[in-house]
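Tip: read the tokens left to right.
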């Protein structure tokens, strides 16, 4: 082959290879973001952090959040960061945090990191949440802090209370996210307030559930299973039986391993609702 044509062939192969590589990267990025909506961006002088979730907003209750970090200079997303976060509610008289997970990489070859934050209250006109994200890239530490919007929900998904043992607890609804007329897999989070900034998960308790339809004579449903843990630091899982569409109040009781009821009442002919409960309507 003549040198001229040989150079053209090499350039053509290189171009095809680069295009294929770029296409693969773009497809990976698009696949990672499938089903997600951007919540907002947080920026400093070096990076822009994009926050994503399925619902595209942060609300009171359990929020699964994904993020990616864009290098503002190279315009390339960072794949090798170590990330942590700290949400803080700034109230008139005090500040506090909320239950949160560690932040982990979704896939080694991808750009996304993921975790959860469980906000126990919404913002208001004079009180607000901010989020600090600390991250390390190649041994260099960075940080971004920004106010975030945390919206109220129509239905109750969080119970914050003092138990009979004088400990402060938070119990939140996680799943089903799309309830059906069926026996649904149910997932619940239970945390204890260690101090204003620390909320460890509670282990080896039981969340008793009793779903009722107040508009239909407060009837219940068969084949419910109380929520328990499979392993320490796991969420609590049970079965939620829903026999028809409409508004349901899921009455709760939080019990210690020895059976002691920390909060909540059993539903009887005279007790129509527990003091702690979730609400769903579908």
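Filled-in amino acids:
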């Amino acid at each position: 082959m003549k040198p001229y044509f040989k150079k053209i062939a090499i350039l053509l192969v290189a171009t095809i290879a680069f295009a294929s590589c770029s296409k693969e990267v773009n497809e990976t990025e698009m696949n990672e973001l499938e089903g997600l909506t951007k919540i907002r961006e947080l920026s400093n002088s070096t990076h822009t952090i994009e926050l994503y979730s399925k619902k595209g907003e942060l609300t009171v209750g359990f929020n699964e959040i994904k993020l990616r970090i864009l290098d503002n200079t190279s315009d390339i997303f960072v794949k090798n960061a170590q990330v942590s976060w700290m949400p803080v509610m700034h109230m008139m008289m005090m500040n506090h945090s909320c239950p949160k997970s560690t932040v982990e990489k979704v896939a080694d070859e991808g750009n996304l990191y993921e975790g959860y934050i469980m906000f126990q209250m919404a913002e208001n006109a004079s009180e607000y949440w901010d989020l600090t994200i600390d991250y390390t890239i190649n041994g260099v530490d960075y940080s971004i802090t920004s106010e975030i919007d945390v919206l109220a929900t129509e239905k109750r998904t969080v119970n914050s209370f003092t138990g009979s043992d004088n400990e402060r607890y938070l119990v939140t609804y996680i799943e089903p996210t799309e309830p059906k007329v069926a026996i649904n897999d149910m997932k619940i989070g239970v945390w204890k307030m260690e101090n204003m900034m620390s909320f460890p998960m509670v282990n080896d308790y039981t969340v008793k559930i009793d779903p009722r339809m107040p508009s239909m004579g407060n009837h219940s449903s068969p084949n419910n299973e109380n929520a328990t843990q499979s392993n320490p630091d796991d969420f609590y899982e049970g079965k939620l039986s829903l026999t028809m569409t409409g508004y349901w109040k899921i009455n709760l009781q939080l019990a210690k391993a020895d059976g002691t009821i920390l909060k909540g009442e059993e539903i009887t002919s005279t007790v129509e609702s527990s003091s702690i409960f979730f609400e769903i309507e579908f």
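The CA atoms of residues 223 and 241 lie 6 Å apart. Confidence is low (pLDDT under 50) at residues 4-25.
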